[in-house]
Each structure stands twice: as C-alpha cells, then as structure tokens.
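Protocol step 4 of 5: obtain the predicted structure for the target chain.
Materials: sequence only (see below). No template structures provided, no constraints applied. The aim of this step is simply to have a reference model before the mutagenesis design in step 5. Sequence pasted as it appears in the construct record:
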Amino acid sequence: MFYCDVVDKVLNLDLISNSIRVLFSPFSLFVEIPNFLSEDECKFIIRLAKRKGLEKSQTLFSENQDEAMEMLSVDQMDIFNLLDRNQDGQLQLKEVLTHTRLGNGRWMTPENIREMYTAMNADPDGNGVLSLEEFKQVNMQDFYKYMGRKKTNKSDLVRNSQHTWLYQGEGAHPVMRAIRQRVIHLTRLPTEIVEHSEPLQVVQYDQGGHYHAHRDSGPVFPETVCSHTKLFNDEIVPFMTSCRYVTVLIYLNNVTGGGETTFPVADNRTYEELLTVYFFLIDVVLQKSVYPYERQSESAGAPSSHPCSAMETEVLLAPITALEIVGDHLVAGEGPNIIVYSLEPDGLQPARCCQQLLQNCNIHGIKEQQKLAPGADGGTTLAVFGGKSLVIVELGLQSSSGSLTKLSPVCQLHDWIWDLQWLEGCTETCRCVALALGHNCVTLYDCMGQVTLREVHCQEKCILYSAHLVGSSWDSLVLVAGTVFNQLLIWCAADPVDDAGRTKPRSRISGHSGVIFSICYLESKSILASASDDRSLRLWGISNLRAPPEPVPCLLVCYGHQSRVWSVQLLSDYIISIGEDSACLVWNYQGGIVRSFKGHKGRGLWAVAVDEVRGWVFTGGADSGIRCWHLKGQRTNGSSLTQLNFPSAQRRGSPRAVKLVDANRLLVLTDAGAVYAHDLTSKTWTLILEDAAFRSYCLLEVSELPSGGSLCAMGNLSGQVKIFPFSNPTQKKELKLYAGKVHSLSWASWPGQDPDTRSLFASGPAGALLWLEASCRPLEGVTVLVKRCFLLPLCKHRWHTCITFLPQGELLLCGDRRGSLMLFACKPALEREAVPSGPASDVTCRLLGLDWTVGKEEPHAEGPVSLLFGLHGKLGVTSVAWHDGFIYSTGRDGCYRQLQVQGQQLQVRRKQKPCKGLEWLEGLRFGPNGEVQVFGFYAADFVLWSAGSNERRLCIPCGGGHRSWSYAHSPSTETFAYVKSGDVVVYQSRDVPGGLGIFKESLCGRELTCVHHIGTLNSSRQEPVSILATGSEDCVVNILAFGEQSHSVTQLTAIGDHISSVRALAVAGSSGSSSSSTQPETGIISAILFSAGGRAQIECNHLQLRPSHESISSVVCELVHVASHRLDEQWDRMKNRHKLVKMDPETRYMSIAVLEDAVDTELPGPLLFLAAACSDGSVRLFLLLESAQKLWLVAESFHHQRCVLKIQAFAYKTAGQVRRHFLCSAATDGIIAFWDIAATIHCATGAARAADKEMKPLALEAPVLTIQAHSCGVNSLHVQEGADGRLLVASGSDDGSISLCVIDVAAKSTTDQGAISGAGVQVLKKFSRVSAHAAHVAGVRMLHPDSLLSVSVDQRLTLWRLGVDGLSFVGSKFCHVADVAALECWKRGEQSYRSVVCGRGLQVLRCAV
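Step 4 output (structure tokens):
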C-alpha cells in the first residue's frame, strides 16, 4: 500500500508483467493493490532476509545515545517552538506526546507524561500544561535519564519487531530489481527519486509484535539526515530519519490472526490538527535534510525531480589513492572512481573506461581475485574498497573500451577497511572475503548477501594505522597489524578466544619510533617489511608468520626518504617504497638505494604498483598524476662514471679543457699546449697537435660540419686563434686577431651557408667581437674570411658567451657575460679579404671602409640595434636559441626566457624557472613533441630536467659547473665529460628505455587556492573548450583547457613567476572589461590575467588562445608577461623612505578584482584598475599601463584595521548614464564595506596622464556604507546586478552562514565634467541563512536572479532559491574535493551553468537551474 490523495475510482495499470486492478477507497489516504508480488517472489524475499539476518527494530536510549543527543545543536527555545504548534505559549499534553513518541522509543500516554512531570518537578501547578518559564527550568538531560531508568515492557515500546534491509540498486538480484521497477511504474515518480531511496525493509512481527501509530517522516535537527541518504553523508551523523513521498507496504505472507494495518488519519475529520503537524514535519525534513527532495505545493501535483540530478560531475581530478596491475591493464582509484588504462607496448594509451563505484569514499585498495595473465582478454573479478565501503566488480576486457560490472551492491561496514584478502571457495552466490578493520579485528564477510559471517577481535584494543592479511583460508589467515603504539602485532583469526571473545596476539614487534603506515610480507624470502612515520623502512626476519620467533630479529633499517614513508613493497630483487616527499625509491636487500624516481609534484605519493616481469613501476600521487618508471635502467649516480686514465708517461701535461666532438669522441687540451683525441668506443688516445703558445691559457671550441667532419678553434692570451679540422690537424690556420686576450670563442651557422663553412665569433679586448667565416675543403685546406666587427655594450665583463643567427640571417643574437641580450644587424655582404696566413705578429684585419689595427684601442665597429641590459643578472647568459618562431635564452640566474623580435627590437614574452634549486642553467633541448628539457647544474651535480614531465632525467655528480665540462647527445646516446683531479671523467648511456611515461598528467603539487574562468572557444575539432586558470600553494598558475564534450582537462601552460603561494586570480579583456574578450571572426580569446598572493606580489600576463590542429587539446595558448609589482621593490624605489613607515614585505594579497571599462582617451590603450584585499588590513588600488608595461600602486586605505579577506568591484549607471565604480570589501570581523572610488580613479588617471613615473599613492576615501553581515570572517563574496537593476551582494562566512543583501545606489550630484561627486549606497533588504553549511563557506555565486550556489569545506555544493522571505534549500551535491577553497561558475545555456570546485583537487560540474 502507499499513501496518496485521490478521488474514488477504479484504474487498471500494467505493471511491467502483470495487469493489476487498483481499488481507490473513498475518503481515504491509501490505495490497496492485490497480487502485487507472486507467491514465489514473497518466499524468495523472506529467505533472503533470514539469510542476511534480522535484528531488533527497537533501540532504547543508552549512554552512547545520551552522548549523541548532546551533539544536537537545538536549544530549548527551539524545542519549545517546535512543540508549540498552536503558538499559544504553552505546551499541552498532546503536543508533548508528539515529541516523546517519536524520540524516546516508548509509547507514552498522557498519564505517563504526568508521572514524568511529577518526578522531574516540571509542572509545579499540576495543571498538565507547561508554560515557557516552566519549560526553561526543565533539564532535557534529566528527561533522557528518567526515560532510561524507567522499566520498560515490550508493550510499552513504540515498535516491537525484527527487521533487515535488502539492496535493490544496480547489481542486485533480478527479483529485487524487478520490484523496484514496478514501484517506479506504479508511482510514476522520477527514476532518480526511487533509485536513491532507502533499501527494501523486511520486517518480521512475532507474537506480541507491534508498531504503534507513527508517521513515515519525523522531525529532524541539523545533525539529522534522511536514512536513504546516509551513504552520501559523513559517518559522524548521529541521527537518521525517514524522508518519504510514499510508502509501499507489501504483505509477504498470511496469518490466521492479527497482522492488520490501520490508518488513524484516514476518513477522520477530527484529526486535522495532527495532520497539520504531519505536514509541518515533512517541511522540516525537506528544509534540513542533507539530500532532500523538493516537494511542490499540493496544487502543483507530482513532486519534482531529484535536485541532485541537476548537478552532475563531468570531471574529477583527485589524488590517486590506489593502483593495481591486472593483466595488460592498470587499474587506478581516483576519488570514488575506477579508471582502467591499457599497457600497450606501443606507448601511452588513453583510459579504456572510467566509472564511479563508491559513493563518498576514496578508493584505497583494489584486490584481484585471481591473477590475470598478461595478454589475456577475459574478465576478472576485483574487490574495491575505501573508507567503510566495499564493492565487488567484474572487469571485462573483451571490448576495445573495457567494462566494469557490479557483482554486488556497495557494502557498508561498521569500521574502516585497512586490507582485504580473497578466500578460497568463492562462488557466484557467495563471495567471501576477509577484512582487516580499523579497530584491530578481522571480519569474514559475504559480499553478495551483505552478511558478516564471523568477526574476531584481538586482545590488544587499539586503533590500527595499517594492516596486512596473509593466507588463503580462514583457518590459515594471519593478520600483521600496525598499531598506533608504533608496534607490529601478529595474530591469527582462527586462534581460540578468551572469555571476552578476543584473540591473543602471537608476537609483538617493536623498533619504529613512529606509527606504521604500510606492511608487506614476502614468504619466499621470509621477510616482513614495515614503513613508518619515522621516515624509515625496517625488514624483519620471519620464516613462518604463524610461529614467529621471539624476539623477531630486525634485518635492516633503511633511511632515504625526506619525509614519512607511506608504502613498501617487496620484490624478488628489490624493495620499493614511496613517501610524502614524492619520491619512489628502489632499494637492494643490502639497504642501498638503486634508483630514485622523482617526477610527481607536491605532497607525496599515495599508490604504487609493480610489474616485476616487465620491469615497470607505476606511481600515483596527490597531484592526480600517474607515472611509469623503468625498474631496470642505467643508474646515474657516481658508480656509472668512468675515468679515462689520462695521466700517462706518453701524454704531456694535465687536462685543462675538454670538448666533445660528438657522443663518442672528445678532445682534451692540456696545460702543456697539447691537444689529444679520445675515442670512447675503441678507448684509444691520439695526439692531435702541440703548441707551446697555448700552455698557460687556452680556449677550445668544436663544431660539426653538415658535410661531415669537424672544425676546431683555439684561442690564447696573446690574441692568437688557431683553426684546424679534426680529421687533418696539419691543415691549420693561425691568426693573430688581437693584441690582448681572446676572451671567448663561439661557432655558429649562418642560414644558407655552404655545408663546408662555419662562422666563428671571437671576443677580444675593449668589447670587440669579430665575425670570421671558416671553410674546410679537402683540396684547399682551411680558409678564413673576416665578415664584420661588432662592439659589445660597455660593462666590466665585456665579452660574449653565446651567439646564434636568426632564421632570416639578417640579425645576429648575442648574449654576454654581464647577462645582457642584444641584436646586431647583419648587413648585405661586403667585399671580403682573406686573412693573411703569414706570421701571426704581422696580421692585421681590414674591413672595407674600416682600416684599423687590432689592439687595445677602441675599435671602429657597429653596436647592437637592440639591447636588454642585464636581463639574466650579473652572472651571464649561457645559451641562446631559436625555436618555433621564438627566441630562448638561459642564464645563471636560474631562469630561461622566451623572447620575440618585433621591428628589430627584442621583447621578453615570459620568464620561467624550471625547478627549485636549479640555479645554473646552461642550455635547452627541444623534443619533437614540443617538450622542453633544461640542462644545468644543481649544486655540484649536472642535471637534465624535463620541464614538461617535471622530472629529473639525468643527474651526474661532477663537482659543479666551474670546472671544464662538455655535454653531447644523440637519439640513442648521451655523453657528459668533465675534468677532475687531473683526469677526464665520462658518463655515457646507450639505449636508455623511453618508458611508458606519463599515464595521467599532474594537476598541481599542492592545494588549489583559486580558480577563474577565462572564456570559452570552439576548438579545431569544433568542441566547446572552456579555459580555466588555477592558482595553488606551489606558487604556480596553471592554464587548463576543459573539453565540454570529451570531459577532459589538459594543461596548456604554467606560469611560475611567483615566489610564494598564489591566492587570487582576476581576468580582464583586452578592451579593459572585467572578462575576457573573444573575437567571433577568428575564434581567439584575448585576456589579461592578474595573479596575486604571498610576499605582496602581483603578476600580470597577456593570454591569447586560439584553435590549433597540432595541439593535443586543440587549443594553443600564447602568453606574454606584461608587468609585475612587489611592495618591497616599490619601497626600494621610494625617495626619502626613511621618513615613511615601511611596507610589510610579507603582506599577502587575499583577493583581487578588476574594475570594468575604465577608459581615458588621452592615454594609449584602456586603463586597467586592479583592487586588492590585503592581509595587513589595507585595500589597495593599482593601475596597469599595458603599453608601458607598468603596474602602479595609486591608492590605499587601512580602514578595516584587520585582514581583508575578499574584495569585489562593480559599476553602476546612474540616471544620467554616468558609469560609477565601487568596491565591496570584507574582513575577518564579518563587516562588508562599500567604497565609492570614482574620485580616486579620476585623480589617478590625471596623474598617470601628467607623469611618466610612479606616483605617490593616494588615500582612498572612507567607505560610504558598512554592514555587519556576519559574526566572523567573510570567506566568499559575490556581487551581481539583479533583474530590477539593483545589486545583490552574497557572502559566506566562517560560521557556515550565508548572507544576502539587496542594495541600491543613488547619485547625490553631478559635476560639469560629468563625474558624480558623490553617491549613496543603501540596503533595501537583508537575508541571512544561519548554519547553511556545517563548516566555513568557501564560495558563493549568484547563478540566476533567484538562484544561488554555495560550497563549503563540508564538501557540499548546495543550490538555493531566493524568495521574498530569504533563501530556501533546493538541493545539495557531495563534492569529492577535500579542503574546498574556491568556487567558480559560468553560464553555458539558457538554464545551464558550469561550476568548478577546487581544493585538494578539481571537480567540474554541470548545474541546471
């Protein structure tokens, strides 16, 4: 039977397979349907319920429940108002009965209430009515204690029965699924409502059993949730209640007497008052339950769809918490989702399938029932668990996409699951597993029947941090448990129990000084391994876990991780460990580190899986990335270095300089002026030439020719340069170019140059730079021509360090020792003379029109056409290169820069720092797929760093870059040589395995703090792609592309200019608006991105995004750095700063906002004003002059006198169509201030027009209005214009409340220039929703004039509707992102929005309003 409100009629319904005649009784609220189930179906349900086990339905108050009642946040005034239904200020007996019958488990009568009043002295006048004053004197705890002491008969109970719950969801028995489909067909409710409802409850009433009059929905408090949604909520919720639209009562058998059900409300005209109470309680449930359904008014008809269905997750990027290799596939757990990747030999493959298996728990473990052999195409059974949840699925690999099928419902245990072990004897109807639970117990669990068959507890009562089950049957099962007391406990599940029903442990192992996070046992080696909080691994010798020795010997202690060790695995030859330091270490059984895999970002690795046969190690981290490493690769530590044993009686001098000709040949120049060649293949030394003039000081450079062969150049102190071919040194050419020292030599290739010719550049005294052209032909030998002479800019270290031609050959790019970059013009070819080959002392250089003798005098030469002085600091530029239309330079400042040439002028586009600690960059390598690799020196090590994969590809301990070294590479070989201790040391690797690489890209290393939508464009595949910017604690701003159809997220670029965490983002269009601008004719997004955060730093970058067929994401992002600002740098530029109060350099920008459309016709380009909320209590206003690449601080105010958390900017058009700008700021005291900044903008614009230097900051005028919106800090703020032109200001607070204000702006007067001299802001309405969330509100967004979306640290994304009386609850969605920090929304359709939640991960949802 089920409740409904209908008229008298007869209706025939076809319930899927049966035609049933429905009888509607007049004047009733119920419907009777005969033969709803067949007799066989009823018997099946009874058997299934008894097999699972029936438990008592009635639960009385206990001490634990008293403690739970104390958790309720309802005071006595709330209870009084709840019970006082007629609002007469007094509680009658029938009103009190409503509470006691629903709350205490006993059936109370008015006489019982009077007895309780007497015992508690609650009713002094004895009239049976409690006034408000009398009720305030009642101690509610005394009431619960009174009920607990009162002797109770079974007849006094509200309910006397036994019951169980049967699962009907996906994967349930076909009979159970068929019953649910009939209910859906009968009630015509949306499928989402019925599928998310509570399971089927089977109740058995024995003789004397009963269930007194009750209602199917009861009152709830903030801590109470709907029972059918308990899986969607935190486990700490103490109370649940029923939240039903209809109740279907099915009689499973017939009895000779009793068993009837009565409906006291039906056809009872005198029951209107309690009926009103019933509907009130329904309203309470709808408003306060965590996942309620929206109930329309009685006249509206059927209920609406489940609100949660209007918020669907499209993308989830979360930490990888589980990995398992299944055949030729890798199965990963990301949040509640399972992702299956193919391990194809041809490289990286996309995920074959992805499915959410658990509800609100992260997957922590994946266990395969029977190991699937590599190459097998069949299916396999997996147990997936996390938190207190467990599910059995079948992984099908027959199709190209793969499939996951649930074999059991999601099982809910009473405790955390630490480990799972499949046991022998599993069948299709009974799949038994052993579970190690969080309170040191082992459970034998039937997943199909959801029944606990056995449960054994250990005598050691403690919480476990890890557990490891060993054994294939219950009798042989052994648990090794890692306790909170830093011990390992070994005990057997089948051992006898004591009087308390607990098992005695067989061994206790001590040694760790921290809790134990991981345990592994390898029976073939008789070794037990443990990983601990104390950063160590320990190996213990145990041949038989069922009979451990006493004491257990510790075989090895391994220290190598820089932080806590999360997991350990034992292999036949190696030990694998992962830790919080994001490192995966490979150890041998002697305790040495064999390999170190570091490539993940941020705060640790959480999962590891090893394929020992193929030598693959897979790691998953908190950065949501998955990587594959080669276990058996060549090591890059000191043991892989080879000394060439240069010192010998046959070789003269000690090595001074070394240069690699190619990956297999090198040259060595000694302090005796001798040049030797060494072949790394044949390991032979050959004397090339010897010249005593090059003993004390010498330069050596080598260049390969396209035609084959190599040219070598040497320079010395006396200005001599010697050029010779490597294959025939006797064909040398000796030149005297300078009267002084040759500071540097560099080879370069001029576009269109002959294959046998190379350009040589030589720097001499006084900044002279000679361009020589050297050719080497077999018959002619070496010929040298002078092309041109250039002059380097004046500085202390005046010589070049690197040089290259630009592709057109018209410009020469040069970097010098002072850190400057410059361009020289290569004019059309002049008449050239061969440099004489006579005695070196008689040689002069003559250029047509310029006759001068090379000496110490200032030469007559050409200077640069473009100069960026000191771009790379004072330590010099180390390399320059041209790639893909851009210039790249590296330096010893730890950065590499991307530049472009416009009108023969160098312009810096962006600066990038590859990684922390790599302060000496020497060069870049560009891969075929666009990957950038940086090589340089990290302290005393030579490092090859991949900027794309964020990993160290090569690390050679060479002693640092100050010694002579050389690096060469080919597709199959990498060679590095250096001079140390009078010898030459070489590292060479051949056929390094390329690896499967990155299976899943990393998002960010640490928590995301902010997210901003930049715009949406159509990709080259005609897919809408939304561009997002995220800021994080690891000082990086990521630009992401979200494919709205493919539901994929791809990183376009990363901005690493910040020196501290990024806290806030803001976007302005190229036209000056506060949003990005898209050009419809080209489909290009152009935007200015502001990022701000710690150390009072603001960075400004110009983004241009366009479709591209070559990019993986089909979108290309071009980024140009525009300007930056730091308070400490501004302080250093101030005059007379000793008279001022110093700005705090540790100030953090908490929030920033761009002012819309501030335009000045007399200044080039639009004016962009940026407002910032600062941790030092100030509100600051900045002005960006994009054409001048300057960001100025123009105004500030310390009105708040405490940390300002949020700021918003908005504009308002007055009646005279004058646009006026306002700021809205919120601080930690809950006050929101409104600022009229029109006058400040006017003054700042005038100052910018009048001066070309930074102005002194103005003082912002006092706020025009302040509102006490909250009692504590405001963490979220949003201002939006309503349909009536008024402004809506929504805010969320630390206390979980949401406030909404409706404000209006009124102009006071207008000046002759059209600028408003003053404006008033007034509050028209103010609403507040107390306890809207259980934790502080991290984000609020107005989606629609009457809809609001909020998100909180409680991981709930909640939709609200704005009415005349305030905010009303619509629906809520659980977010799988922990530590939620920000919310961003944008419109994608008439009633559709996209929302992004960020924190420890990123989740994109589609919201239908």
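Step 4 remarks: The mean pLDDT is 81. The two ends are 34 Å apart (CA to CA).
Proceed to step 5.
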